[in-house]
Structure formats: C-alpha cells, structure tokens
Amino acid sequence: MSTPKVFLLPDLGEGLTEAELVSWHVAVGDVIAVDQPIAEVETAKSTVEVPSPYAGVVAELHGQPGETIDVGRPLISVTPAVEPVETPAVEPVETKPVETKLGGPVVEPVETKETPEVAQSYREEEKAGSGNVLIGYGTPGGHGTARRTRARRSATAVVEPVETKPVETVSTSSTTVDDLSLLRTRVPGKLGAVISPLVRRMAKEHGVDLGELHGSGESGLIMRRDVEAAIHTPVVEPVETKPAVSTSSTNAPVVEPVETKSEVPGSRQARSPEATDARTGLPVSSRTPVRGVRKAVAANMARSRSEIPEATVWVDVDATALLELREGMKAGGSDVPGLLAFIARFVTAGLKKYPELNTRIETAEDGSQEIVAFDGINLGIAAQTERGLVVPSVRGAEKLSARELDAEIRRLTDVARQGKATPTELGSGTFTLNNYGVFGVDGSAAIINHPEVGILGVGRIIDKPWVVNGELAVRKVTELTLTFDHRVCDGGTAAGFLRFVADAMENPTSLLADL
C-alpha cells in the first residue's frame, strides 16, 4: 500500500505565519490531480485557493472550516493512486549492467550531465512549472510528460523485479525527508523559492539539504547551479536525514501533530462567553478572536502609533471648480474620471515636488536610521471591505493619467473587496490616499500606514458659505487632512504639499495644463 503524502500549509507570501481555513473543495475519498484547488484559505492579506502538489486519493483533511492553521502544519494527506515510481537510487548504478540489452535509451537519463543539449533541457525544466507559486514545490506544467518518460525508462531496465522491494522501504521515508526539505526551502516573504523535480532529485542523490541553500535565481529560486556548487562543498550532508531514513514511521512526526484541537478556540465562530466579566460585572455576550485582516490591521496600526512621531495638518478646500470641470467633461460625452482619480493625480504631482513624503525610515540593528527615497510612486488607496480595511496600491502611479488612475483604482478596489488582491498589490505602497468622505465625515486624524511616512485624507464635499471675490457665496467645500512622519520632514514641507494639492483642486485647469 502506498503511504499517504502529507501536504504542509506553505508560506502564502509576505512571510505570513498562519491562515484561516475557509472551505474545502475536496472530501476524503476524492481523486485529485496535481495543481487542483483543494481548499480556500484566508490570510491577513487576502483569500486564496490552495492547489495540491500531489495526485491521488484524499486520505485525510487536517482541519475544519473556521480553524486557523499555522504555516508548516499538515493541511491534507493524499494517497498516491500508483505506487511511487521515483527510484532515483536505481537509475545511476543499476542501469549500466543492462546497457547491452537496452542500449542508449536506458543510460541516457543518467549521463545527461555530459551532454550540452540535455543540459539545456535541464535549464528549461528548471523554469518549467505550473505557475502556482502558492505551492512552492515546482509542480510540472506544460512539460509534465518529461518526468513520466524517465520513470518508464527506469521501469523497463529489467532491474525492477529485484531492486524495487528494498528501494521501496527507503522511498517511504525519503518522501517525508523530501517534503520537509521542500518546506524548508520556502523563503519567508518570497513567493519564488520553487524547486524543480530535477533539482530536488540531484540534491537528494548527493545528500544536499535544500533548506541550507540560498537560491541565486529570481526571488530566491534555487537553481541547478546552486545544488552543483553545494555538491563540491565539503560536509554538506545534514545529520538529521540519517535517523529519518532508518525509522520506518518517519511519516508519523509529520502527520501526527494534529493541532486542530488547540486551533478550535481560534475558529471563525465566537467562543462561548463567560458568565460575567470580572471588571465590569456585566454579562459577556460574545468573544471574537482577533485574526485575519483585523489582526494585521491591529498590529500595523499599533506599530505605527508606537514608532512614528506623527503630526497632522488640515485645510478646507473649495472644490467647486473641480466639480464644474467634471460636469463639463460629462457634457462632452467622454468617459470622465472620478473625483478620487483627479485628486490622486494631484497627489502624485505633489509628491514629485515634495519627495520627502514619498520615503521610508529604516532602522539598522545597531539603532542607526536612514531615510530611503524612491524613484517612483506606488499610491495606496484605502478601501473598506467586508474583511476589514485594506490598502491596495497603484504601482508607478506618477506615470498614469487621471483616466488611467481611475481605471486602476476601480480595478484594485474591486479585487480587494472580493478578497483576491495579491500580497504585492496590498503591500507595496509608498504613500496612502484615504477617501473617508464616503462615510459622511469631514476629517480624521488618520494613522499612517506603516512603514510609509504620510497619508492624505479627503472628507465629504458639502455646501458651505465661502467668500469669493469679497462676496459671500455657497460653494462645494471639502477638508484635506495630512498626517506625516515628523522624522522625515518638518511642518513647512508638509504644509507645502497640502497647499499644493488644495490649490490644484481649487484651480484644476491651470495644473492639468502643466501635467
């Protein structure tokens, strides 16, 4: 019987350490394929579908919807539909004695290191993959037949009747070693640490612990050259692999930590309340765990308030001319950007004039600090969703027109509300624009979205008495509020930026002519 393979919850990106299981797409007994979505999980960033790196029959589901699962804990166990054919120990040695019968086709997979054409195919297979960076296991995509072809060759090598039995006892334990090694190759906060099957096999054959390697490829991808370099380095083989091979129940330590019982208190449903609160003497109606987006927001806001010496400036703005400009554009029959897109365009122009507000403070281990400036603007747009407050960012916002900004803002807020925004879209902002006027309020002393150094808030636009050319008139007025990090600039810079955006809103045609 095949030993079930245990798929451990991978790092879903941005160094997240846990995820809440929303729903299962499969059940025990279902036959699944590689890369088939098996579950939907919710992280502090977004809701994502998790695909399976294994094909076979679902043996066990490690968790119930609503439970929180830590990264590295079992998610699902899958029994392979066919006995594992991957016997790399047979390929290099045992095929040579049979060379006279089967000729080149058997020896070819072993001797590819000497052939330039096959070396090129190695590099191509390193790049091949399903694209499901969520897994991190390098599952084959369009080139999936390449690995199966090698398996058939080794199976026809006439060594199978004798060699498969002793090898099988090793493959069950080495499978777990592979899985643990693959888990260790996940680089926290990086999505690209994917290991191709060929690289994994090479590492296993030479006793290279992938968990100790730092990939030289893009986003930390471990390449064949990294493994080859480790092979020529003395004392590479880790000690932990030896007891793992000798123990027949090595799968047990991986499967056994069924932590779901301790996870239940952190489920989506509120826990049973206590009878009476000791401090207030009032009955406790419910207890709701802080997790997901709410947990991320709470941690980020607390860090912002504790680390950033923030200051706030604000100004009332006569937005009548901007509204009239939009009405005139509507009369022309063209697609008109929303007010927020126009303001976003004014903000990017202001940040180019006052770049101090488009920076970040970095603190070294010795306590020294430096201000990091950026050649470009990723404008974050605060969006309220059912899951909580998220801030997707428009990358390269300074290069976009008001119409282009409008389209991208609408797209980002839509995917954010669906919970489908990527970690990159949610975590790459350099400055935030917050339109809290949609909630019917005038102003707010906002908290800066750490590690940014500024956030501009826009209040509701309402009719107010306003003096125009010495006479009282009713105008469309809003309030702009800027909260900034006093470490990167002083009040003069902050006031200059705020006044620039306000003047642009009051006289939009003059500024737009220069953009």
Cα end-to-end separation: 70 Å
In percent terms, what proportion of residues is strand? Answer: 15-25%
Q: Can you tell me the overall shape?
A: elongated
Number of strands: 19
> What's the rounded overall pLDDT mean?
75
Tell me the helix content. 25-40%
Explain what the structure shows:
- With 515 residues, the protein is of the alpha+beta class.
- Helix content is 34%, strand content 20%.
- The chain contains 18 helices and 19 strands.
- It has helices spanning 90-94, 99-102, 104-107, 116-127, 145-155, 160-184, 197-205, 224-231, 241-246, 251-255, 260-263, 292-307, 320-331, 339-353, 402-417, 423-426, 491-506, 508-512; strands spanning 5-8, 18-24, 31-32, 37-42, 47-51, 56-61, 68-70, 74-79, 310-318, 359-363, 369-373, 379-381, 383-385, 388-390, 393-394, 431-435, 454-458, 462-468, 471-485.
- Strands 9, 12, 15, 16, 17, 18 and 19 form a seven-stranded mixed beta sheet that branches. Strands 1-8-6-3 form a four-stranded antiparallel beta sheet.
- A hairpin with a 2-residue loop joins strand 13 (383-385) and strand 14.
- Helix 7 runs parallel beside helix 8, helix 14 packs across helix 15 (402-417) and helix 14 (339-353) packs antiparallel against helix 17.
- The longest helix is centred in the middle third of the chain and has 25 residues, at 160-184.
- The protein is elongated.
- Residues 93-116, 121-178, 181-192 and 235-270 have low confidence and may be disordered.
